[in-house]
């Protein structure tokens, strides 16, 4: 195997796998490096499902989603596999909640189909949920979930089909950036390329330090829980929407969930978790207390799962920027190095688009898609 490539991609999670696919599809000689096994559980890309939705509190994300859905459909066609499962989705919370109001405003501005329901109307439509009298409910029929692990494996399968070399269990030991090339030491070997994409999730901050760039990325240890009520019927994906509860003032944090699909259990989680200081010391053992902390919310708003046991719980690492917007940009000092970072909590739905954007930036120096929110310059003096 030769050790010289057009582009090296570090990180084979949601974004890196997609970037490798789009690069290879454009005829690039691509090397994709992953420090763990493909579809591992240590980061933020593994799992049954991630929410996909138009409903956002920023119109830029709504517009980007309009470009993203067609890419998912094209990916499904090329794979011959279903990745997007449409369930419809609801955002709910106090009518005066800022994030809910901003979401409704962005959806109204976008022109996408939606309904606004009162608490009484929503209770009749969605009997699994209880909505307080002062709640408003936004319904958007295109929402659903993406099969997360299947999407990662699918991007990698197609990248290989287009000629990419994929090496897992190959941790990066060093990065050296020259004026028009990069050298990467990984797994005891040295690889060179004309360009580099760093899409390493929670490990991006440490890797980018080797290129002289310090990014304000924070890591959070979040827990996903999959509940198993005695009667799962009302909570199956055929009958239940994906949902986001804008209730941070009443329950300390927003809560979200995804219906059960093919035995996954009913997913519920806080949109946050405790900070992580050292990656090597992360405890991946789930906490029973996390489930118990969610039970007051369940009793108030989803009583059918309030006393159910968790079929499974799993740790998921969040990597976020201070403003929770992504980073999709070129390195400020090395124009042949592209960076994708800070996606956790709401990035997976865009992963196939982010891969295309990173490939665009790596090969063309820019992307035709709106990346105004995602520039590194907002964090530089």
What can you see in these coordinates?
With 381 residues, this protein is α+β, with helices and mostly antiparallel strands. The chain has helices spanning 14-25, 59-79, 98-110, 119-125, 148-161, 204-209, 248-251, 288-301, 351-364, and strands at residues 4-10, 30-33, 50-52, 84-86, 89-94, 115-118, 135-140, 144-146, 165-167, 172-178, 181-186, 189-198, 218-227, 242-245, 255-258, 266-270, 310-320, 327-330, 337-341. Strands 1, 2, 9, 10, 11, 12, 18 and 19 form an 8-stranded mixed β-sheet that branches. The chain has an 8-stranded mixed β-sheet with strand order 6-7-5-14-15-16-13-17, sandwiched between helices. The protein has a 3-stranded antiparallel β-sheet with strand order 3-8-4. A hairpin with a 2-residue loop joins β11 and β12. It is globular.
| Mean pLDDT level | 96
| SS strand fraction | 25-35%
| N to C succession of SSEs | EHEEHEEHEHEEHEEEEHEEHEEHEEEH
Radius of gyration: 21 Å
Major sheet attributes: 8 strands, mixed
Derived from helix and strand composition plus strand pairing, the structural class reads: alpha+beta
- What is the rounded distance between the termini? 43 Å
Q: Which residue ranges are poorly predicted, with pLDDT under 50 across at least 5 consecutive positions?
A: none
Give the helix level as a range of percent. Answer: 25-40%
Number of strands: 19
Helical run tally? 9
- Shape annotation: globular
Describe the secondary-structure layout.
Layout: E1 4-10, H1 14-25, E2 30-33, E3 50-52, H2 59-79, E4 84-86, E5 89-94, H3 98-110, E6 115-118, H4 119-125, E7 135-140, E8 144-146, H5 148-161, E9 165-167, E10 172-178, E11 181-186, E12 189-198, H6 204-209, E13 218-227, E14 242-245, H7 248-251, E15 255-258, E16 266-270, H8 288-301, E17 310-320, E18 327-330, E19 337-341, H9 351-364
Parallel strand pairs: 1-2, 1-12, 2-9, 5-14, 12-19
Antiparallel strand pairs: 3-8, 4-8, 5-7, 6-7, 10-11, 11-12, 13-16, 13-17, 14-15, 15-16, 18-19
Helix pairs in contact: 1-5, 1-9
